């Protein structure tokens, strides 16, 4: 799944102008920056933060969907959901590996997630309250992730761009699978259809918020665009997402919970009603229903697993010592 | 002949254990295990699906995989007791996996020659999966048994907790009329694998632990009812719905 418009990145950098200019030339020529290349500190810091946020989002994102693995209503759905949640863990793994090339360890990043220093996508601070949410998350949340990540496949930082190419293929499979779950519900019993509509009602606005604040309020965006860490603005991506998704909802016979939604012939896209940014910031800052539970669940897994990780290290050490002694 | 019931026992073993393993998803001690455990769960659930389908067809009463999995109560479930044991800590989960896989690997190896084409087909795939589960779980049992003082203590207490459920693995269930392997004959293979792993892990088989049995007659511990209540809740709230 995915990272939201980067929160709180600090792209300030104080290298010599000649160095920055030479670096910018490489970026402008669409050269990929590789881990061992010289790069401005601000560029490195921004990427560590963005890739880290993205990796954490994949990992925390396992929890809301994991909430339905044990209750999936058929064996086929149970297997597909397990495989999907596993894919998200795999995305987390490649992304941590990409961030590690920039000189930060996975343990360090994990500690930052648990201490609240590092953020993850706020969408995962909403609860999954029905089976329909599993479909809706695939359709909208993985769908929004794809909108964000397709441009990242051309990100200037090589390891991130390459990770995104692999991840995007799986995300688009998740999106289709999610849509198919919602379609099955929309064509099912009246109760199933109501479940699908209720789910769309709850996830629509948080999905739009995944693209981050309006461009006018988004800090540091210009520098990230210049460095080609970001290629489209938050509002551009949000618009693309709305234009792609509204017809999909109509096809299912579900209504998008926005009374102001209207087709604008002139711009060739939809106009939408106001987004509740107070809610967005409240959830980003820790006030969502699930913020505390998500971090507690990660903390518990980390703490409960400590003895296992220690034992693995101790055993590897013993083996090495025995091998040395035998030589 | 009760071949379908014998196949059902096998299907229940795989679904219940797959479900238990899936409970770990997102809560494992490290990210690598958050990927490995769903893999194992997927193997088990995949095998269960084919077996349920087959049991339903052999029974001939029109029950499909979901009917069999979601609309039977605990008294009708005929899995062995080992697979329904709660996850406990990571040591217990890995030991349960090793005990089961070390039994199923030789089982499927024999079943490769079954006169039932579906069973032989399942065996071809499952025998490789079980070999992987033995390796993965076995390596963990060794690491934990021969790791730190704490991990060795936890590993040995997992052995005490689960040992009493291993005898039932080898008991005969519904009569498969020679189509499925004889469970009792797999004892030697199982003993050898467990013996090798335990020797490397520095673990002992406990003495004087009474053996439990009853799963094949629907006589379970209390945990299975909760597992099924959770698993079946949504499907049963909407009987007849398609998902
Ligand atoms: Fe993902
Ligand atoms: Fe995804």
Structure description:
- The complex is a heterodimer of chains A (327) and B (243).
- Chain A has 13 helices and two strands; from the N terminus they run ααααααααααββααα.
- Chain A is an all-alpha fold and 327 residues long.
- Chain A has a two-stranded antiparallel sheet.
- Chain A starts with 16 loop residues before the first helix and ends with a helix.
- In chain A, α6 packs parallel to α8.
- Chain B has 243 residues and is an all-alpha fold.
- Chain B contains nine helices and no strands.
- In chain B, α5 runs antiparallel to α6 and α5 packs across α7.
- At the A-B interface, α3, α4, α7, α12 and α13 of A face α1, α2, α3, α6 and α7 of B.
- One fe (ii) ion binds next to α7 of chain A.
In short, what is this structure?
The complex is a heterodimer of chains A (327) and B (243). By secondary structure, chain A is an all-alpha fold.
Elements of chain A, N to C (H/E): HHHHHHHHHHEEHHH
Structural class estimated from helices and strands of chain A: mainly alpha
Kindly provide the radius of gyration of chain B, computed on alpha-carbon positions and rounded to a whole number of angstroms.
Answer: 17 Å
In oligomeric terms, what are we looking at?
heterodimer
CATH superfamily of chain B: Ferritin, core subunit, four-helix bundle
Can you list the ligands bound to this structure?
A: fe (ii) ion
**What gap, in angstroms, lies between the N and C termini of chain B?**
34 Å
Please state the overall shape of chain A, judged from the principal axes of the Cα atoms: globular
Strand order of the largest sheet of chain A: 1-2
What gap, in angstroms, lies between the N and C termini of chain A? 48 Å
Largest sheet of chain B: none
Secondary structure class of chain B reads mainly alpha
Helical percentage of chain B = 55-70%
Radius of gyration of chain A: 21 Å
């Amino acid at each position: 799944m995915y990272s939201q418009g980067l929160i709180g990145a600090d792209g300030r950098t104080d290298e010599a102008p000649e160095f920055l200019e030479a670096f910018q030339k490489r970026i402008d020529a669409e050269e990929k920056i590789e881990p061992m290349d010289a790069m401005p500190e601000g560029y490195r810091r921004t990427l560590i933060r963005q890739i880290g946020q993205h990796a954490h989002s994949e990992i925390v994102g396992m929890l809301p969907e994991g909430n339905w693995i044990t209750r999936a209503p058929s064996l086929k759905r149970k297997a597909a959901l397990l495989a999907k949640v596993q894919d998200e863990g795999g995305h987390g793994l490649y992304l941590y590996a990409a961030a590690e090339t920039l000189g930060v360890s996975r343990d360090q990043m994990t500690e930052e997630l648990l201490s609240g220093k590092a953020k993850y996508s706020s969408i995962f601070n909403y609860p999954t309250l029905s089976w329909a949410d599993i479909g809706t998350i695939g359709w909208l949340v993985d769908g929004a992730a794809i909108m964000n990540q397709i441009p990242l496949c051309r990100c200037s930082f090589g390891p991130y761009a390459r990770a995104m190419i692999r991840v995007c293929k799986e995300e688009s499979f998740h999106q289709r699978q999610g849509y198919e779950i919602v379609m099955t519900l929309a064509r099912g019993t009246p109760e199933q259809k109501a479940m699908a509509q209720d789910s769309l009602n709850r996830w629509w606005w948080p999905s739009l918020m995944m693209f981050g604040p309006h461009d006018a309020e988004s800090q540091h965006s210009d520098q990230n665009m210049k460095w080609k860490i970001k290629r489209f603005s938050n509002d551009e991506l949000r618009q693309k997402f709305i234009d792609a998704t509204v017809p999909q909802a109509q096809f299912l016979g579900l209504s998008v919970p926005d009374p102001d939604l209207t087709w604008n012939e002139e711009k060739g896209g939809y106009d939408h009603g106001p987004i509740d940014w107070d809610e967005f910031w409240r959830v980003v800052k820790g006030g969502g229903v699930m913020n505390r539970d998500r971090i507690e669940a990660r903390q518990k897994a980390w703490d409960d697993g400590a003895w296992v990780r220690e034992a693995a290290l101790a055993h590897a050490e013993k083996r090495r010592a025995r091998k040395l002694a035998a030589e | 002949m009760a071949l379908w019931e014998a196949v059902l026992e096998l299907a229940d073993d795989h679904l219940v254990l797959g479900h238990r393993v899936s409970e770990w998803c997102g809560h494992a001690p490290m990210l690598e295990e958050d990927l490995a455990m769903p893999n194992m769960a997927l193997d088990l659930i995949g095998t269960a699906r084919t077996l349920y389908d087959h049991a339903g067809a052999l029974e001939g009463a029109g029950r499909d995989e979901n009917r069999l999995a979601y609309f039977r109560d605990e008294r009708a479930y005929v899995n062995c007791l080992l697979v329904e044991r709660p996850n406990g800590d990571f040591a217990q989960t890995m030991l349960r996996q090793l005990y089961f896989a070390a039994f199923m690997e030789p089982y499927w190896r024999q079943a490769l020659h079954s006169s039932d084409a579906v069973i032989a087909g399942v065996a071809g795939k499952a025998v490789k999966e079980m070999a992987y589960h033995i390796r993965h779980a076995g390596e963990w049992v060794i690491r934990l048994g021969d790791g730190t003082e704490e991990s060795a203590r936890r590993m040995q207490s997992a052995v005490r907790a689960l040992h009493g459920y291993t005898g039932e693995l080898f008991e005969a269930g519904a009569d498969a009329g020679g189509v499925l392997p004889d469970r009792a004959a797999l004892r030697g293979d199982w003993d050898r694998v467990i013996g090798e792993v335990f020797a490397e892990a520095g673990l002992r088989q406990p003495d004087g632990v009474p053996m439990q049995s009853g799963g094949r007659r629907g006589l379970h511990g209390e945990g299975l009812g909760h597992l099924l209540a959770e698993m079946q809740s949504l499907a049963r709230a909407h009987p007849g719905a398609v998902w």
